[in-house]
Amino acid sequence: MRSSSTAKRSPAEARAVRDLDAIKKFIAPLAPPVYAFEASIGSTPFRILISVLLSARTQDAVTGKAASRLFAAAATPQKMARLSRAEVERRIYPVGFYRTKAEHILKICAALDRGGKFPATLDSLLELPGIGRKSANLVLALAFARAAIAVDTHVFRIARRLGWAKGRTPAEVEEELQCLFPRRRWAQVNQVLVGFGQTVCRPIGPKCPVCVLKKSCPSSSLKLQHKRLNL
């Protein structure tokens, strides 16, 4: 795992950093939904935590609206803990698994309402109901500016497509990306690759012909087509 930004990079590491920067610049005009979502969820750890919980298996636009409705009714853990489960469900619908998420939200708020210190480490976040490793890492990055790589479906898929990782599980891919990028870049990986996956490197029908990495990506449809034709 890379721990120093001054350590000499291998050619693969340097190339990955250049590609990440190229992707970030390329997708900026495309206004990926993740950019608007992260800008809308507020700056307090509590709002970020609840918004991240809501975002699982849900499109960013839907999540943002659901979070706004919920926080309009209760902006603090103390106030939210006093909402009924039916009220929380009504306000967050139609996010995915909204009934389960409502239950988790109320349990989290009840724990925070009892005066517990807000969880600010990976281990303490993982103890919360409904918060897995991806969500915990995202909260660390967004709420506390910690070095963390949240591996969701976009990051997992694209890291493997680009040859940045070969792991078969999110945890394995996370470890490979930590080794590939300097710590100061870790928090950027999720936002950039999620935005890339939403706009260009889609799960089905990726837009390889217009991609900024079409000449270097090992999974580019253009490169694979040339290989089949022996070009």
Verbal overview:
The mean pLDDT is 92. This protein has two domains: 11-30 and 149-223, Endonuclease Iii, domain 2, CATH 1.10.1670.10; 34-144, Orthogonal Bundle (Endonuclease III, domain 1). By secondary structure, the protein is an all-alpha fold. The protein has helices at 11-27, 33-40, 45-55, 60-73, 77-81, 85-92, 98-113, 122-126, 133-144, 153-161, 170-180, 186-199, 221-228. The chain is built from 13 helices and no strands. The longest helix is centred in the N-terminal third of the chain and has 17 residues, at 11-27.
Name its key features.
Endonuclease III, domain 1; 60% helix; globular; Endonuclease Iii, domain 2; 2 domains; 13 helices; 231 residues; mainly alpha
Blueprint of the fold:
Blueprint: H1 11-27, H2 33-40, H3 45-55, H4 60-73, H5 77-81, H6 85-92, H7 98-113, H8 122-126, H9 133-144, H10 153-161, H11 170-180, H12 186-199, H13 221-228
Helix pairs in contact: 1-12, 2-4, 3-4, 3-9, 6-7, 10-11, 10-12
How much of the sequence lies in strands comes to under 5%
Q: Could you give a short account of the major beta sheet?
A: none
What is the class of the largest domain in the CATH system?
Mainly Alpha
How much helicity do the residues have? 55-70%
β-strand number: 0
**Do you know the CATH architecture of the largest domain?**
Orthogonal Bundle
CATH superfamily assignment of the largest domain? Hypothetical protein, domain 2
CATH topology of the largest domain, what is it called? Endonuclease III, domain 1
* Shape designation: globular
- Low-pLDDT sequence parts: none
When the domains are counted, the total is: 2
Q: Overall mean pLDDT score?
A: 92
Class by SSE composition = mainly alpha
